[in-house]
Amino acid sequence: MRYTLFMLLVLLITAACQQGDADKWPDDLAGKKALVKEKRTALKELQADINLLKEEIMELDTTQQEETRRAVKIDTITSETVSRFVEIQSVVEADDAVMASSETGGRITRLAVREGQNVRKGQLIATVDMESVNKQLSELQTSLTLAEDVYQRQAKLWEQNIGSEIQYLQAKNNKERIEKSMETARFQMTKANVYAPIAGVVDMTMKEAGEVAGPGEPIVKIMNTYKVKVIADVPERYLPVVKRGQMVDLHFPALNEDRTLRISSVGRTINPANRTFEAEVELLNKQGIFKPNLMAIMKLKDFEAKDAVAIPLVLVQQEVTGKDYVYVKTDGPNGAFAKKVYVETGERSEGNVIITEGLKVGDQIIVEGGRGLAENELIEIM
User: Fold this and answer.
1) Contacts (Cβ under 8 Å, ≥6 apart) of 293
2) Are 305 and 340 in contact (CB under 8 A)?
3) CA-CA distance, 236 to 233, in Å (whole number)?
4) Which residue among 3, 13, 114, 252 sits deepest, i.e. has the most Cβ atoms within 10 Å of its Cβ?
5) How many CA atoms lie within 13 A of 200 on its CB side?
């Protein structure tokens, strides 16, 4: 208002001067040019005075101050469930991985499978040469024939009360001992064939036909990949939050596949070398896409808070004293203004922080334009 009255006064004075001085203007060209230059200089001085007066008016006039309110954006605080996850590198392993081996040992005469071949439980894997057992059986058969003949003769003599009882018992024991040895040799002959202990795929062959395999020495490695397991080495600090039956998210980067499954087993010991324990997740693999040693990422939930007040961490500012604060919108006599509120922070998750003290549901927090605000500074809501 004062600025408007001032401008009207300047215009009236200028018009009056122009009307009074019009008769005194010079008639020649040089004189008119000199007068124009003089008037321009006077106009510049007058404009400088006007600008100075405008600045003083803005400092004194509150209606002008309202025009320079800080523009901000606000958001209403609500309660929510806040969760935090940790990502742990994992690896796929076969659910069953066993070695097929010969119990007796010997030269391998036939290898009936090859690497990568699917086999069923009980399928023939290899045949081992049992020539030495065959020779042993022949020798035992000859000894058994003699032992039976001696036993029969001693039995007849004993029935006639001829000879001693000890001779009869020795002949009987010798015959039965050889019979037992033959049973053992015949049982060993059944071990000539090596069969698959489980159904799966032949992952590796350790021996080839013609090579000698010792008793219990692996011939082939068989893995059951129909069902696999994902194993993660979890740091021991997460032991309180990792439980059997807990849901976890699995991501397989090489396959761009995701699964959500339950933890089937939690390790009972801590590895002293790296201070971790195992968490295992069983996974069906009907199509066989999950290969053993495939890398996976396991996402474990290590924190959850329900009905929590959480805000973006970037909104929390800090004084030189170390106190955290935020700005909230408050209404006053002159309209909305920024109020500084001191807060206590808690757990953090994905760029957000939980506010334990200072804010409540329904508060209107300044989310944009808060940097550089002053306490009680007037604001305008965008």
Assistant:
1) 91, 92, 93
2) no
3) 9
4) 252
5) 25
Q: Which two tokens stand for residue 70?
A: 């800080």
Q: Which residues of the chain have pLDDT under 50?
A: 1-3, 5, 19-20, 64-65, 67
Does residue 100 lie within any of the structural domains?
A: no
Same domain as 297, residue 239: yes
Rounded to 5 degrees, what are φ and ψ at 12? -65, -45
Choose among 353, 306, 339: nearest CA to 80.
Answer: 306
Boundary (domain end) residue, out of 216, 237, 256: 216
Residue spans of alpha helices (H) in the chain: 2-21, 29-60, 62-65, 131-159, 165-189
Instruction: Give the Cα separation of 133 and 340 in Å (integer).
Output: 94
- Owning domain of residue 157: 105-216
| Residue finishing a domain among 305, 329, 360 | 305
Same-domain status, 210 and 137: yes
**pLDDT tens per residue across span 318-339:** 888 888 888 888 888 888 888 8
